[in-house]
Amino acid sequence: QVQLVESGGGLVQAGGSLRLSCAASGSIFSINDMGWYRQAPGKQREVVAVISSGGRTNYADSVKGRFTISRDNAKNTLYLQMNSLRPEDTAVYYCNTVPIYLNWGQGTQVTVSS
User: Fold this and answer.
1) What are the pLDDT digits (tens) for 70-92?
2) How far apart are CA 71 and CA 113, in angstroms?
């Protein structure tokens, strides 16, 4: 079973930046569309960015122009560069396939202070 391990979260002031990473243990990574998801306290998990196996990207309106998703298939690693962070970006961030079919990892906490 492929495992997903997210890292790179932390506490940052509004306007700051963070880069998240997601390492996948299996070789299926390169053939799947991948996404970053987030779940804020009291809210449902939502997708914020998607990248196809061929590198095409899509973003939720709330992060468009501020977040950039990328992937390194040779390293089985997914990235999310987050700039101009806002307090409303505070959430636990997860990666998974699109559509979702892997077990969720532990996620990485992102906290943006105002």
Assistant:
1) 999 889 999 999 999 999 999 99
2) 28
Helix/strand/coil for 57: strand
State how far the Cα of 4 lies from the Cα of 53, in Å rounded to an integer: 17
The CB-based long-range contact list for 33-37 (8 Å cut-off, 24+ gap) reads 33/97, 33/98, 34/71, 34/78, 34/95, 34/96, 34/97, 34/98, 35/69, 35/95, 35/96, 35/97, 35/98, 36/67, 36/69, 36/78, 36/80, 36/93, 36/94, 36/95, 37/93, 37/94, 37/95, 37/96
Quick one: CA torsion of 83, 55, 62, 108, rounded to 10 degrees?
A: -60
- Mean pLDDT for 103-112 is 97
Nearest to 93 by CA among 83, 79, 77, 73: 79
Tokens of 105: 């990892």
